[in-house]
Structures
1.
Amino acid sequence: MTLALALHALAAVVWVGGMAFAYWFVRPAAGVLEGPDRQRLWRGIFARFFPLVWLSILILLASGYHMLFAGYGGFAGAGLHIHVMQGLGILMVLIFAHVYFAPWRRFRQAVDAGERETGARNLEQIRRFVGINLGLGLVLVAIASSGRYWP
Ligand code: HEM
């Protein structure tokens, strides 16, 4: 339980913290670059960040369900915050999987082929979904970390 919770929290920090950095700091600062350079910058950022998100997801799910079944004896023994965490967590994973296999794939191909319009359209989609996942992730972390003290 101790190791699983430590890994779980670290993976959550990497995923949610990475989205916060991209969305709140890189995005406004990247405005100084011209379109093609900006698209290449985001291509480089996502190419490094997204594999780490997959690793975080793997760790979150494995450690989460390990704690749930080995620590709490299954769904019946778990508090409301754990059910909410699981629900929001699965939603975040589905959203990320969509981003990865649809707009990110198209964005990558468009940047490599120099198709700026397609690139811009797909980058905008990625931005929107990352914004949603960032919001969900912040709510999830607040619920997950405070839940055990709820009355
Ligand atoms: C989807 C399946 C998931 C399951 C089954 C799960 C399960 C758990 C369990 C059993 C705990 C311990 C709670 C306690 O003892 O009160 C926990 C804690 C936590 N989880 Fe999850 N979790 C999941 C997904 C996620 C995701 C996707 C995130 C974040 C992106 C996340 C973030 C956290 C955080 C921040 C804590 C609290 C750590 C602490 O401060 O003690 N979990 N989770």
2.
Amino acid sequence: MNSAMLSDVYINPEKKSVETLWKDGHRSIYHVTWLRFNCRCKVCKRTVIGELNIHRSQFPSDLRIKDARLTKNGSFLELEIIGEVVDGHVINIDSGWLKSACYCDQCLHEMLQERTLHFVDPTKVEVPKIDYNELDTQEGMLNWMKQVIDIGFVVIQNVPLEEGACIKVGEKISPVLQNTYGKLFDVLDNQSTENIANSQIWLPLHTDQCHYEAGPGVQLLHAIQFDDCVQGGESLLVDMFYVLETFRKEFPEDFNILSKVPVPFGTIDYQRKNPCYLYTRKPVIVTDYDDQIVGFNFNKGIEEPLRIHAKYVEKFYQAYNKLDRMINRNEFVFKHRLRTGELLFFNNRRMLHSREAYMSNGGRRRLQGCYISMEELRSKYVVCARLMGNLDVVAPKIGNGSAV
Ligand SMILES: [Fe+2]
Ligand SMILES: [Zn+2]
Ligand SMILES: [Zn+2]
């Protein structure tokens, strides 16, 4: 039995919607305006990306259903409506598409559930690793991207010790993104006054480039040189989505404050090599229409003075401090010391990252980094999985402000 076949259709008494019964027993309700504007007949169906065949603003606001019927053994739904503006038009929608677009509460819940993130316990799970040589195969590519989709990061081992090798790795997935620090940047102790990362001191957990409307998706950090004599300098990673789900349960009121109050982030430096003015404000936690956590902005190092309505000031700092303490709980922290030739590859909009302080002891810790698009990675992941036969692959959320 094909579960995406219709078995019956009823017009609701007010003629504003239909209820469909499916062969598997599922019931859906579709509204007349939704049905008309999603018509899949030969005239209306979009066949080219961007094509617009239904001119919605030409329709009256009060459409009604005149007739509804199933055709071809329940594989199509046909409707005629009062208020139609195209002569002789009959709405025609294939059942498979109609079922996949069902917006009943159960289907909406399932849509969000299947895209929700699954968290791993850093105290029980090894840091995920993959070898550079595997990246040349389709299986290797898929495995690489799957680790980033599933866990949020992966360490690529045996990356050639060449200048710009991280760009070559990144470009296997997406063009490298230009940012405040150029396309390729070095992280080493060079006494630079541009960024504190270029020192030996401890860096708190953070997200890079919160001063943009949307920070870069994936960050690559390639350990071109990390001498054994260097003491410290371990990389730390925390799945902020995991933390925030926990935070919401433990401190719901603080969660609400942090998802409402906007924090200013800025990088304003007229003295640096490439003078810049980057400034924006946005809440620490980003939620959506369904109250799903869909993003966050967390970087104390580039926060600007908080300017919010007085009644929120104290509440904000109390809430922020609770979150700040939570992210450092052992249960959330992955810790890894990069070896020379290893490349840390992580979703910057999901994983907070930091570095422990280090002492070079006559050696050197030099990382080279760049950013690529996480949305391109997810796109490649889905395409690659489908090419390899997994037509049911689901793309979970990636921290880009969307739950789907
Ligand atoms: Fe960073
Ligand atoms: Zn049509
Ligand atoms: Zn449904």
